[in-house]
Amino acid sequence: MSNAPAGTTFPEQATDLVARVDRDRWGKVRPSLYETARVISAAPWLPGEARRVGYLLDEQASDGSWGDGPEPYRLLPTLSAVEAALAVLRRGAVSGDVRARLTGAVARGLTALRALPPQGPWPDTAAAELLVPSLISEVNGHLAVATEEIPGLDGAAVADRLAIPGGYHEGAPAYVAARYEAAGALPVKFHHTFEGMAGHIPRNLIPEIDGLLGSSPAATAAWAASHTPAAVKQAVAHLEPVAHRYDGLFPEAAPIRVFERLWVAAALAGAGLPAATLPTIRGWVDEIYDPEGVRGAPGLMTDADDTAMAVLVASLVGRPYGPGPLDAFHNGSHFDCYIGEDTGSVTANAHALQALVSCSRRLPPEDGIDDPRADKLCDWLIGQQRTEGHWPDKWHASPYYSTERCVSALAQYGGHHASAAVARAAAWTADTQRDDGSWGVWGGTTEETAYAVKILLAAAPPTPAPHQVHALGRAEAYLDAAAVAGTEHPALWHDKTLYAPDAMIEAEILGAREMLRIRHL
Fold first, then answer.
1. How many Å apart are CA 393 and CA 386, to the nearest integer?
2. Other beta carbons less than 10 A from residue 280's beta carbon
3. Among 71-85, 451-465, 467-481, which stretch is predicted with the lowest mean pLDDT?
4. How far apart are CA 406 and CA 390, in angstroms?
5. N or C end of the chain: which has fewer CB within 10 A?
């Protein structure tokens, strides 16, 4: 979190944040243990391996696992780390203390994996159904020869092979690869997680690259390993700049500039964009908006989420762009996040509804959106609401994020049914506030508290009830104290594993704190 000097105003902080985001061509996100371990395993030819191995060792938790969040979220990063450590040990690339530390880390990691629940539910992270069985197969391949090839490794630790957890299927990577081999093409949606099928993809289906494959360092390293020797030089050229930006390590996607800029702008707009930020944000919109649809990072598919946010931000800052790019994603009742999507996203559809409503209010009537499509989308969102009053979503671990998105969209849309859904969400939010004034799915966080504040403010009547005023007051005190403390944001966002897009989170908190301040005026 940014530690702004005491007395700094929202316009000053927002303008500073926008300027920092504008200067950063990569995006503010911490390295990924999963992704970095995949690069260690697949790209021993990439300079800087000692730094990455040291990071892997330093990041192991006391229980032997790796990663963020509760146990189910640690399955994939722990598999990635154990496999990478085994690969390094089998290569004989380290000696002495590092080798001893790696063998100990493997033994503790295997113990942690065997202690995980044998059955789900598992988090709905990107392509977990392919990545988990693929890594288990690789780990078991190492274990089959470990006692002969890795001196010093605890024999008891490697005696038993890892079992496929309930909910995953051993043959999934091969099955999916064979399916697309028969079709003659590998869809772009699999590029970002290419490493999960790399060993099963025939050479004629391996895509060419012009940058990171699917914006992913792991996918790019796996691409080079499964391609031709000449590809290594090409992969180094794409991976080294990312490693330089992240001190030898790797995030799950790079760059995230489009995604970050759109979400930062929209979050700040809720509290009123300072005039000083408008030229910069309008420049972002002019660069990002695409009539064919927007992609969140180079090498990814165009998607309804980023496209909707580009349409929304364009409308908010007065750029003359309409909702036409969303047409390709509409399926009759709502919007598919991308072509070939398996599970729908309520947050992508909430962003689409916000974009449609904003355009209908700001553009000339002939360029607006027809009400029936927005009506259907409103009905679809209300139909996804849980009986408790919240919405879950696949792009974020916290229901406060997805619920705030849905509430903001439905409150802007209006109408009796939308208002009733908003009221149910606000009641759930009020009931789940923690004793210290915060909100959070696993523990109180400033990010989730910001979302909860926005839910309550969006649902509040002109004269809020005393309990609502009290809840917002406690939240304001919590956020003010956290701003002084400057704590790190926990990873709550879903990609292959959990991550934290820090600039976007900072914008959400800044916006919420300013909205709380404004309510006193």
1. 11
2. 17
3. 451-465
4. 9
5. C
